[in-house]
Write a structure and sequence with these properties.
The protein is α/β, with parallel strands linked by helices. The protein is 26% helix and 28% strand. It binds ligand PMT. Its EC number is 4.1.1.36, 6.3.2.5.
């Protein structure tokens, strides 16, 4: 294999926690820092890929990749889908909010004298939608779990029609949200699971990409 096995190939990577607005000054989000996705973007770049990083993170933009900053799940979906057709690999490292406020106030909401309710409606599942539409694309999803990691990860592999699910147990001290390290298990259809011991997100990112290349016979 060449040193640049992804030369001339387009790789789309999502990163960070989406932001779902309640009003102009308030929002719903999660603890994803974007580190895992940004490290994947750098490693894919170093393997020669034309990388598109669709990021909801405030981290510095990596050098040598095309960055598309987004906020909400729907913006993330639009930014990914515009390059979907000719992408070779798509990696969903982002933590996408499953719900958004149904009504987004265009002025700051005022304090009420009683309890208030925020009604949430479902966001599109970006990975599952791509799973239905894919032709040649190799789809990699993540699974952030706190228990029954294998059960939930293999379920996501099937349900979202992904080619690989990278599961991280986010209850562990050295893994998951906002850490510089991670520990993951890679699940693929009809293959033994691969456990990658605790390492920097940079090295974990490299492992994930090399495993995908091996499975794609690139
Ligand atoms: O960003 P860091 O601080 O470095 O942390 C990394 C991470 C823990 C966020 C990352 O490694 C990770 O696990 N990301 C996925 C978290 C997650 O939202 O998992 P999930 O089980 O909710 O979703 C499963 C998969 O479907 C994910 O690939 C997700 O991007 C995708 N998804 C989920 C919901 C949705 N509406 N659309 C999606 O595409």
């Amino acid at each position: 294999a060449s040193d640049l096995p992804l030369k001339g190939k387009k790789v789309i990577i999502s990163a960070g926690g989406t932001i779902e607005r309640i009003d102009p000054v308030r929002y719903i989000t999660n603890d994803s820092s974007g580190k895992m996705g940004h490290r994947l973007a750098e490693q894919a770049r170093d393997l020669g890929a034309d990388v598109i990083l669709v990021t909801a993170s405030k981290l510095e933009h990596p050098f040598g990749v095309t960055v598309r900053p987004v906020s909400s799940a729907r913006e993330m979906q639009a930014a990914i889908m515009s390059d979907f057709d000719d992408a070779t690999i798509i990696i969903m490292a982002a933590a996408v909010s499953d719900y958004r406020p149904k009504n987004q106030a265009d002025k700051k909401m005022k304090k009420a004298s009683q309890d208030i309710q925020i009604l949430l409606e479902e966001n599109p599942d970006i990975l599952a939608t791509m799973g239905q539409q894919k032709t040649h694309q190799f789809l990699i999803g993540f699974a952030a779990e706190t228990n029954d990691v294998e059960k939930y990860a293999t379920d996501k592999l099937k349900r979202k029609n992904a080619d690989m699910i990278v599961a991280n147990d986010v209850s562990k001290e050295h893994a998951g949200f906002n850490k510089d390290t991670n520990e993951v298990i890679i699940f693929q259809p009809n293959k033994e699971a691969i456990h990658i011991e605790t390492d920097t997100k940079e090295n974990i990112a490299k492992h994930i990409l090399l495993e995908a290349l091996y499975s794609m016979k690139l």
